[in-house]
């Protein structure tokens, strides 16, 4: 993929597919967006939420960052990009669902097992990856074989989702809405190798095929 392909891609989109969305987009321009879902996914180029969930413009407010991590609530005066997205989605857009979606072969989760050195060029990444530390610790404790990299990486990716869901509950306005029943938090795991998604079932702490997912609201 070269940058010129993007120019061609947009032309193709306008000529072949824009008409499919035109009515919706005109309405959304008039009314503004009103998505029910905040999707938190990884920045990984192989993760393509709109494609694999077959969504339309206006369906999902999206946060993507390294590792689909959720930083803990921190109401100081610093630049908290991810928290700003969460704050806007919950307090302004009043989303009804937050999906934390991890994925297989996640470079961020794998990096938790690497020494990134002391380079100032990775200073922000190193700090950010601390958000996966608990997932790494849990996985290493639970791993039957510490040399089984496949098990370690895949488990870390899934365990991290649960910790990021927990981090969402450090935001007081999220806790309030969850208690009221106006907001639900979901943990999903996307397998890039076959397009399937599993959801986290808190009742028995396992991931199950998305086909079995049931939701009343
Ligand atoms: Zn990733």
TrEMBL record:
It catalyses: hydrogencarbonate + H(+) = CO2 + H2O. Its cofactor is Zn(2+). PROSITE patterns: PROK_CO2_ANHYDRASE_1, PROK_CO2_ANHYDRASE_2. One of its GO terms (molecular function) is zinc ion binding. Pfam families: Pro_CA (PF00484). GO terms for biological process: carbon utilization. It comes from the Bacteria. This is Carbonic anhydrase. Belongs to the beta-class carbonic anhydrase family. Binds 1 zinc ion per subunit. SUPFAM superfamilies: beta-carbonic anhydrase, cab. Its EC number is 4.2.1.1. Reversible hydration of carbon dioxide. InterPro entries: Beta_CA_cladeB, Carbonic_anhydrase, Carbonic_anhydrase_CS, Carbonic_anhydrase_sf. It is an enzyme of class 4 (lyase). Zn(2+) binds at residues 42, 44, 103, 106. The lineage of its organism: Bacteria, Pseudomonadati, Campylobacterota, Epsilonproteobacteria, Campylobacterales. Keywords: Lyase, Metal-binding, Zinc.
């Amino acid at each position: 993929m070269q940058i010129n392909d993007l120019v061609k891609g947009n032309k193709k989109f306008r000529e072949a597919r824009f008409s499919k969305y035109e009515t919706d987009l005109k309405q959304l321009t008039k009314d503004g967006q009103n998505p029910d879902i905040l999707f938190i996914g990884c920045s990984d180029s192989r993760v393509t939420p709109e494609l694999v969930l077959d969504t339309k413009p206006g369906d999902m407010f999206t946060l993507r960052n390294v590792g689909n991590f959720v930083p803990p609530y921190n109401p100081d005066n610093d630049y908290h990009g991810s928290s700003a997205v969460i704050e806007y989605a919950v307090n302004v857009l009043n989303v009804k669902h937050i999906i934390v979606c991890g994925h297989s072969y996640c470079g961020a989760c794998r990096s938790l097992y690497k020494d990134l050195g002391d380079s100032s060029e990775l200073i922000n990444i190193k700090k950010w990856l601390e958000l996966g530390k608990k997932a790494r610790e849990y996985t290493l404790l639970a791993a039957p074989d510490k040399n089984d990299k496949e098990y370690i990486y895949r488990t870390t990716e899934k365990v991290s989702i649960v910790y990021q869901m927990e981090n969402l509950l450090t935001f007081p306005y999220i806790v309030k809405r969850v208690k009221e029943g106006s907001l639900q938090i979901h943990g999903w795991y996307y397998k890039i190798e076959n397009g399937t998604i599993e959801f986290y079932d808190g009742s028995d702490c396992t991931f199950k095929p998305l086909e079995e997912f049931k939701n009343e609201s």
